[in-house]
Structures are given as structure tokens and as C-alpha cells.
Amino acid sequence: MFATRSFTLLCRRSAASAWRNNSQSAGERLDISGIYPPIATPFTQSEDVDYQRLDDNLKKYGSLPFRGLVVQGSNGEYPHLTPQERVEVVKRVKQALPEDKLLMAGSGCECKSLLLVTPCFYRGRMDSQALINHYTKVADSSSVPVVLYSVPANTGLDLPVDAIIQLSQHPNIVGLKDSGGDITRIALLVQKTRSQDFQVLAGSAGFLMAAFAVGAVGGVCALANVLGQQVCDLAQLCVSGRWDEARELQYRLIEPNTAVTRQYGVPALKQAMQWFGYHGGVCRSPLKPLSKADLEQLRVKFSSNGWL
Amino acid sequence: MFATRSFTLLCRRSAASAWRNNSQSAGERLDISGIYPPIATPFTQSEDVDYQRLDDNLKKYGSLPFRGLVVQGSNGEYPHLTPQERVEVVKRVKQALPEDKLLMAGSGCECKSLLLVTPCFYRGRMDSQALINHYTKVADSSSVPVVLYSVPANTGLDLPVDAIIQLSQHPNIVGLKDSGGDITRIALLVQKTRSQDFQVLAGSAGFLMAAFAVGAVGGVCALANVLGQQVCDLAQLCVSGRWDEARELQYRLIEPNTAVTRQYGVPALKQAMQWFGYHGGVCRSPLKPLSKADLEQLRVKFSSNGWL
Amino acid sequence: MFATRSFTLLCRRSAASAWRNNSQSAGERLDISGIYPPIATPFTQSEDVDYQRLDDNLKKYGSLPFRGLVVQGSNGEYPHLTPQERVEVVKRVKQALPEDKLLMAGSGCECKSLLLVTPCFYRGRMDSQALINHYTKVADSSSVPVVLYSVPANTGLDLPVDAIIQLSQHPNIVGLKDSGGDITRIALLVQKTRSQDFQVLAGSAGFLMAAFAVGAVGGVCALANVLGQQVCDLAQLCVSGRWDEARELQYRLIEPNTAVTRQYGVPALKQAMQWFGYHGGVCRSPLKPLSKADLEQLRVKFSSNGWL
Amino acid sequence: MFATRSFTLLCRRSAASAWRNNSQSAGERLDISGIYPPIATPFTQSEDVDYQRLDDNLKKYGSLPFRGLVVQGSNGEYPHLTPQERVEVVKRVKQALPEDKLLMAGSGCECKSLLLVTPCFYRGRMDSQALINHYTKVADSSSVPVVLYSVPANTGLDLPVDAIIQLSQHPNIVGLKDSGGDITRIALLVQKTRSQDFQVLAGSAGFLMAAFAVGAVGGVCALANVLGQQVCDLAQLCVSGRWDEARELQYRLIEPNTAVTRQYGVPALKQAMQWFGYHGGVCRSPLKPLSKADLEQLRVKFSSNGWL
To answer: What is the rounded distance in angstroms from the CA atom of residue A86 to the CA atom of residue A84?
Structure first.
């Protein structure tokens, strides 16, 4: 009955419940700080899921200092996968994931078979109280920690600050991924929830440094599919207080990030992955390939910033 | 692979293919003119689908001069139904539907088991060409006629006029349900597609008369769940050119219509159904019941217009 | 102290106060029903106001069955005129205006020297009560009848329905020009204010017929600068209940109307005026001339509908 | 002929032209880094400008480490001032301004009598090229340096990045005030214009620290009317690289800042000024006083952050 697209459930490769017992006895929350790529789903030319190439990508990601991976997000073309494909993709990711990495999934990883839509559908009726009720129900019943997810560009609904503050007190809600990019809001959320040990992740590499500056602890960044090491470097510079170096690196990531997200979308992300040694490939219909002009512009966004 | 939430596939209770052969030999398109309620789904107090009460409603609707019924729309809380429940709801509706009525369904009625999301998800990439490609693919492969569906309030995406004009030439695309309510656009669409015998339906009772005035031939109207006869009367007055009477009736439907749609949503629709002898009942979470103040306002919207 | 861009004050060429005394003793409101072009301001090549060509246009408009003229609207490039130019333009229009025509002006016609901005500036604070207070103050102190003006595309602020209903009871507020084009709202406004003899004008030729269908009594239409007789014909067909003929004419006006307003703006309006025997000419900076491609498209919008 | 609301012209109390000659011979741009309050205009109970109280405020501001003052912005209720009042207010501010402070004015300071509207009026036609043409014309003819001003919440128009980059090369355009708060955009603008010695100012205290983190050099902050020393302290902490202290101070300024700007507007700004020893007073109509409930909420925003 739960709508979980606005949620991200956390799974460790093994022993999620073991962890949970431990962490609860210790009174500590799961540490989710760090960088996560929301992974893409490679397809064959006939638009079937290419599991072999997915495995190849996962192997490469395994050598990068990511905190974990996100599956079944919009960058994975999740809305265009069948339920069976979703299950299989998550299974593959779990198998490839190193022991110490986290897996965040758009909807329950191994357990759930129902496809459950996001509560933004009736957004006109989704006031703070409705959202608090709903998310509390999900968090109560989830065997794994929950990360809230606010992405107004997709849902037309910004999870209200007062709802987040109240939900941050739930023992099974450990953080928030905020993709809106309103840095004032992110700072306010950090201020208002830090007594709860609540953790805020930036939803994009474009404002990652600014988010760290105001107290965020990591990011879920599409660009990390392409420039994974560099995004991790930026996070590390921020954590170390080397802000001048961080700023220079941040500048060079903005245009590539915008290009593979808002500007040209998943087809651009997959194209850029090809340039950097990953398997991207075609998108599933109705997503179209990039036009030649867009492709050229995309290349410029990377080359003019010194990445190609 | 197809995203079909933006589509509405038409089924007659029986013999869809028979009809199809007939109509094709006659070179005529299916006549979809008339009024359709997008039916609500009654739940028990424990939020299970109440199939018995659904049947009761369907029986009552059977006696009204509707052209047909729409299932699996947002008024049916379709996003909060499981795949199994969706199949069962459609089955019930098909059983109850009189021979001469049409059934429009948000996704394939009896045949398809995959749940397929709407192509608005990557709306930033959904230009006219992408949408034309996509919808053509669906219409090519569908065994039943297709009605386009543009609902920008929900999808953030207005199906572009040029795409609709081109798609109107497809032999298996018979019409459009337009819920945006931009009357200039609706008039333009009628003008530009009438050589194709393409049929435009208004997506709301609020602008039903104006839509008829500029050439629409019917409507899919949430309010028809409550005031079904009256909405049909309004359509009939328009078709007969009795515009002065139509105007007076239209006025009285605007506030009730806004109240059960944009203003208070599905909980209000179900409450109003109760007042008029239908089974509404609770909504499934996270939709909340109306507050007392909203309930009182809802009643005023009906009573001040002479319906209660 | 009053912000009057949201208002339109009505002046008859002479004897506004005489009329006012008469009408008040008779207990009747000024009849504003009919069509008004919001006139353009011709410039010379050096971007000075070309008063001679303005006079020429006014002479031609004098022979058309307009109810009156609107000056100092956005189509007159009012925001780019100096206060002195505004005064002079209004003076010229008053001189040219036949006795029986009305003059509506964006801000007081002959008298006022202060330029007063619209109350939409602090739109976040402009709730219904603030707007009612403000407009009541203006209407109380105005020596000529007032027409409310709601144009959300420009102001980001839709004059709320409840405010309009209350303001319709003011003896010196005679009507509303609504440019939003939400036909449901227009119908509701007519329904809710007709006991006050309040008159609603459509703010565009694009939805003029639909507005008449739901009870509007006229329109302020940029397209009337170009196709003045045709827009008046459309109004007359609606008033006479010849809806089938009206519909055919309405269809042919939609694309030309959109082209000279939302799509290509004032430069297109002035270009089209040239084609139909009026003086349009260049726009004042920073408005740019049309590109060649836009110019060609503009011509198609008129020619494909049989006007060129 | 110029629309200058999107511009801010810089005047030093004396010798603007002297400075200009000096700086040009030195080949350097005016240094605008630092904090500026956009000053409020006190009114008497009868809504007349209270010049005495304005002087009192200016005296107090003179003792704070501001880089300068901004007059004739929206916080000064500029849209509701008459042209004469605007001239007089600027005159007073110039008299009170210490030698080493800068004066930024919404439209030319001492010289101009024409009121010139912002080019956002025809925003649908204001593409990058139109805006570049326009601003270049103004900067060419201005005797004082020009600061661009992008405030999409008011104008519905975000000055495009490519236009800013090109305009940054103009010798008389020294910087940008960006009130949109999109931190990714601000970082990109700094990156793309720093070879030109172009200076970016944050348009709000809410994202001041984040703006400094990505390379901005100051801010025009409504909150500086109330907590002037604290906003200057925040800027100083950022400039000194004391980011941990800056973060703590930034947190405490977010809620007060939102309250006196977006949330409750100028009436709240003036109320808060009273609490901190400045003259605020009533607003001019149609701006209404705060309701009691809003007033109480406003107080909480300051007290819960330790300022009251």
C-alpha cells in the first residue's frame, strides 16, 4: 500500500537486520556520508537490458571510493523497466557490491514485489501531515533504514521543511537526499535536524561543494557515473576543509554535470560514460538518442573544462 | 516497453475486434462522442477494494445516458491499487457494462499485464518527435482504438499541438481527452484535425459547454460520478444548440466540479457520491479524509447551486 | 499613491462627469459591451513617436464598429514611453475619438501626472483583502468608471474570484477585462456577478467566442488592430446567437491572434498592421525586429487562414 | 529610453567622475566587494515619507562596516514613491553617506528625472541578444559603473548566463547582483567571468555564506537593515576562511532573513527594524500591516535564533 518512489531504502549487501540490531543497541544511526552514483542501466541495441555490461560497470565502480550505489532511480531508466527487470538489476548490483558499500534502492531491494507509486500523484492533497503520516508508516514497517528523497523537478512537490524536521526524529529515518538545490533550504534543514544526527545528501554534483559548506555530508550524483573519482575528490577536499582547492574542482564539474542531467538527460549521461570507459549505450524508447548538435555541445562541456 | 498512462485504450464489452473489422471495412472511426465518468474505486473501512459496492455503483451508472466509462484514472486511485486489484476492477467493470457502452482504460484492459509508466517521466526530453514516435508505436500495436490524453496538471507536459495534429492522421488514434482547459487550444485542435474525423473530449465538466461551443464532442468528467444525469443534460443541450439553457446549467456545475477535483480532490468526490446515492467511502492512504471545515465548504458548493 | 496599472479608467470624449450624474440618477451602469483594440504606438525609424501616423490609424479605426479604444496598454509599448509622450498620445486619441466611442486608459486620461505602478509588485503580500482595499480606494476617488484588469501572464497575479465578486458591488466599478483565458473562471465570474450588472470583457480574440458563450459581453483584443472588422463580426455573430458561423470565424482568428500576441509579440502586431493598411513600423528598443524566419511564419499564420 | 530597473548604477558621494578617470587610467574596476543594505523608507502614520527618521537610520548605518547602501530597491517601497520623493530620498542618502561608501541606486542617482521601466515587461521577447543590446546601450551612456541585477522572483526573467558572460566584458559593467539564489548558477558565473575581474554579489543573506564559498565577493541583503553588524561579520568570516564559524552564524540568519523577505515582506522588515533600534514604521498602501499571528511568528524567527 506504500508509495515509495520518494523513499530510498538502504540495504547492505548482507546482514541488514544484523546491522540494524547492532546499531540500535548501540543507539547509533547508519553512517551514510559519502558519494553515490545513481547507476545507469545499459541496454543492447535492441533495447534489452545488457546484464553483462552492467556487471562490467559495477566492477569498475567497485574500485572507486564511493560510499555506495543507488539503483532504480531515474538515471537507471527505472520507469521504463519491467518489474522483472527491476528485480534482476537489483540482484546483479547486490552480487557485485563490496561488503563495505551501501545499496540504496528506489523501492525495497530484495523483498518487495509490488510496484508502489510515489505519493506525489495527488500532490494537491499532500500537505505536511499527509506526508508525515505516510512516511512514518513506511519507516515503521521497513526492515532497513530509510532516506527521504525530495526532488521537486520530477514530482512537483517539495517535501516541506517542517515535515522533514518532524520525520528526522524517527529512529528508522536516517537522512534526506535533496535534489532541489535550494542552498538556503539545505542549510536550514541541517541546522534544524542536527540534534537528531540526521544526514543530508546533495542530489547533484552541481551544488555539492556549497552543500558541504553548509553542512551536508555527501551526495547522490549522476555525474559520478562518469567522473566518479573526481566527485569523490571534491567531497574529500570539502571534508578536509581545503575549500580553495574544492572551489576550483567544483567549477570544472558544473557544466559537465548540467549537461548529463537537466540539459541533455540520460542519453547524454550514457554517451559520456562511453567516453570515460564505461558501458552506456542506447536508451530505451521513448527516450531518443542525442542529435549531432547536442552531442557536439556535450563534448564541449567536458573538453572545455579539461576532462576530454 | 510502452508507456501508456497518457493513452486511453478503448474496449467494448465484447467483440472489440469484431467492431474493429466492421468499422475498418466501413472506413469509419469509432464514434466516442458523449459523456464518461472516470469511475471511483470504493474501499472498505480497512482500505480494501469493496467490489460489491463497486458493482452497486456500476448498476446505477448503467441507467444513465453515458457513452461509456473510464477506469484506472486518477479518480479511481489507480496509483494506489496493486496490479492484481487493477485487473480485478477492470474485470468487474467489463461485466457490468451494457453492450452499447464503451470502456476506456488507462492501460490495456484485458490483455496486458505489464504496468507501464507514462512518458512524461523524462519530460525534459519529450519533444514532439519523441512523443509522436512513442504514440505511433503504441497505436500501431494496439488491437483497440487509442485516445490521446493530455493532462498537464498531473504530468507537467502538454501534448504539443503539432504532435496531436500529426497523430490525428493515424487510423487507430481516434481522439483526444484534453484536461488542460485552455479553450483557445481546444478550438485550434478541433480546427486542425477535423478533416481527420478526430474527436476531442473535454477533460472536465467545468469547461464542458465552452468546449462544445468550439467543437468538442463530449467529456470525461469526474463530476459525472455524482451528477451524471446533469452532465449528460448539459451535453445534450449543447448538441441541440440550446445554448441559453446550457449556459444556465453550466454555471451551476462549475463550483461543484471544482470542489470535487482541483480544490478538494478524490476525498471530496467520494463524499459527494455518498450524498447522491452512490458508494464513495474512504480513500486509501496517504490520501486523508476531508477536514470538517472542508466538508462544510464542499456541501455549500453543492447546496448554493441548488443540488442539495 | 494609487497603483493603477491593474485598472482601466473610462473616459468618454466629453462630459464624463455629465454622464456620471445622469447614469447615477438613472441608477444604471455605463454599458461597455463591445470590441476595443488596445492601440499600438507608431514610431519613426529613429524610434520617436510618429503622431501623424497615429492619427492616420485612428481615422481608420473611426470607421469600424468598435465600442471604443484602449490606450496605454502593453500593445502601445506604454512601458517604453516617457510620461510626456503618454500624455500626448492620450490627447491625440481623445481628439480623434468619435463622440459615441469610449476611451479606456491604463492610467487616468487627461488629468494625472504621477506615474503609479501596479500593486502586483509586492505580489506575495497582495491577498484578496489588500487588493479589495486598494481598488476600493481608487474607485472611490475616481471621477470616471473603473474596469478591473487581471492579466496573470504579465503580473504573476490573478485577481482572485472572491475579490472580484466583492468589488463588483462598488457603484463605480463596472466590469473586468480578463486576459488569463481560463474559461471556467470567466463563466464563474459572470455567474457570480450578474446580479450586479457587472460586465466581463475577454482580454484576447483567441477565446472571444467561448467567452461570449459563457456570458461575456465584449473583448479587448490586440488582433482588432489588424482585423478589426472581423473581430467585430465575430462578436456580432455571438450576440445574435449564430454560433455555427461564429465558430467558423473564431477558428480562423486563433492562429493570427496567437502570432501577434504571445508568440511573436508587439513587433509582429506592428508588422501585421502594415499588411492590412495601418501604420505599424518599428518598435522601441529593447524590443527587436522579427527575424526573417519569424516574419515568414507570421505571414503563414495569416495566409493559411485566408487573410492574406 | 532606457529601462533601468534591472540595473544598479553606482555613485560615490562625491567625485564619481574623478574616480572613474582614476580607475580607468589605472585600468582597474571599482571594487564593490562587501555588504549593502537595500534601505527601507520610513513613513509617518499618514504614509508620508519621514525624512527625519530616514536621516536617523542613515546615521546609525554610518557606523557599521557596510561597503555602501542601495536605494530605490523594492525594500524601499520604490514602486509606491512619486518621482519627486525618489529624488528627495536619494538626495538625503547622498548627504548622509560617508566619503568612502558607495551608493547604488535603482535608477540614476542625481541626474535623471525620467522613470524608466525594466525590460522584463516584454519578457517573452527578451532573449539574450535583446538584453545584451539593451544593457550595452545603458552601460555605454552611463557616467557611472553599472551592476547587473537578476531577480527572477520579481521579473519572471533570469538574466541568461551567456548574456552575463558577454556583458562582463564591457568596461563599465563591474558586477552582478543575483537574487535568484541558484548556487550552481552563481558558481558558474564566477567561473566564467573571473578573467574579467567581474564581481558577483549575493542578493540575500540566506545564501550569503554559500555564495562566498563559490566565489562571490559580497551581498545586497535586506536583513542588513536589521542585523547589519551580523551580516558584515558573516562576510568577514567567509573572507577570512573561518568557515566553521561562518556556518554557525549563517544558520542563525536564515530564518530571520526569510521572514523579512519572502515570507512576510517589507511590513516585517520594518517591524524588525523597530526591534533593533531603527525606524521602520508603517508601509504605504496597498501593503497591509502584519496580522497579529504573523507578528508573533516573526518574533519567534528572531528569538528562536537568539537575536531577541
So the answer is: 5
C-alpha cell at D109: 542617482
> A62 to chain D nearest CA, in Å?
29
- Record the cell numbers describing residue B49, joined without a space: 477494494
SS3 A150: strand
Q: C135: nearest CA in chain D?
A: D286
Q: Which three cell numbers stand for residue B59?
A: 448498476
Q: Is the peptide bond before C286 cis (omega within 30 degrees of 0)?
A: yes
Q: Please give the Cα distance from C119 to C2 (Å, whole number).
A: 8
Alpha-carbon radius of gyration of chain D: 18
Q: Note whether D214 contacts A190, CB cutoff 8 Å.
A: no
Determine the Cα angle at D121 with ends D118 and D122, to 5°: 125
A25 contacts chain D (CB < 8 A): no
The reply to whether A261 touches chain D by the CB within 8 Å rule is: no
Between chain B and chain D, are at least 3 CB pairs below 8 A? no
Identify whether C60 is a catalytic site residue.
no
Q: What is the pTM of this model?
A: 0.87
Q: Do B247 and C214 touch (CB under 8 A)?
A: yes
**Residues B214-250 pLDDT 10s:** 999 999 999 999 999 999 999 999 999 999 999 999 9
Q: How far is D12 from chain C (nearest CA, A)?
A: 28
User: Is B174 annotated to bind ligand?
Assistant: no
Q: How far apart are CA D136 and CA A299, in angstroms?
A: 31
**Centroid of chain to Cα C53:** 21
Q: Is D122 on the interface with C (CB under 8 A)?
A: yes
Q: What is the 3-state secondary structure (H, E, C) of chain C?
A: CCCCCCEEEEEECCCHHHHHHHHHHHCCCCCCCEEECECCCCECCCCCECHHHHHHHHHHHHCCCCCEEEECCHHHCHHHCCHHHHHHHHHHHHHHCCCCCEEEECCCCCCCCCCCCCCCCCHHHCCHHHHHHHHHHHHHHCCCCEEEEECHHHHCCCCCHHHHHHHCCCCCEEEEEECCCEHHHHHHHHHHHHHHCCEEEECCHHHHHHHHHCCCCEEECHHHHCCHHHHHHHHHHHHCCCHHHHHHHHHHHHHHHHHHHHHCHHHHHHHHHHHCCCCCCCCCCCCCCCCHHHHHHHHHHHHCCCCC
Partner residue facing B187 (CB), from C187, C214, C251: C251
Which of D7, D48, D80 is the best substitution to test chain C (most C C-beta atoms within 10 A)? D80
Angstrom distance (rounded) from CA B281 to CA B272? 10
D176 within 8 A of D32, measured Cβ to Cβ: no
Q: A3 and B79 in contact by Cβ < 8 A?
A: yes
Q: Distances in Å between the alpha carbon of D115 and those of C115, D87, D134? A: 8, 11, 16
Helix, strand and coil in chain D, % to nearest 5: 50, 15, 40
pLDDT of residue B121: 61
D165 lies within 8 A of chain A by CB:
no
Give pLDDT tens digits for C214-273.
999 999 999 999 999 999 999 999 999 999 999 999 999 999 999 999 999 999 999 999
Distance (Å, rounded) from C-alpha D182 to C-alpha D210? 10
Q: Does D60 touch chain C (CB under 8 A)?
A: no
What are the Cα distances from residue C268, in Å, to B306, C51, C308?
Answer: 48, 20, 15
The C-alpha of A1 sits at a distance from chain B's nearest C-alpha, in angstroms, of: 7
- Nearest by CB to C187, which of B191, B204, B251? B251
pLDDT, tens digit (0-9, with 9 covering 90-100), for C3-39: 333 344 554 443 333 333 334 434 578 899 999 999 9
Interface test with A, best of B288, B290, B291, B298 (most A CBs within 10 A): B288
> Cβ distance C79 to D117 under 8 Å?
yes
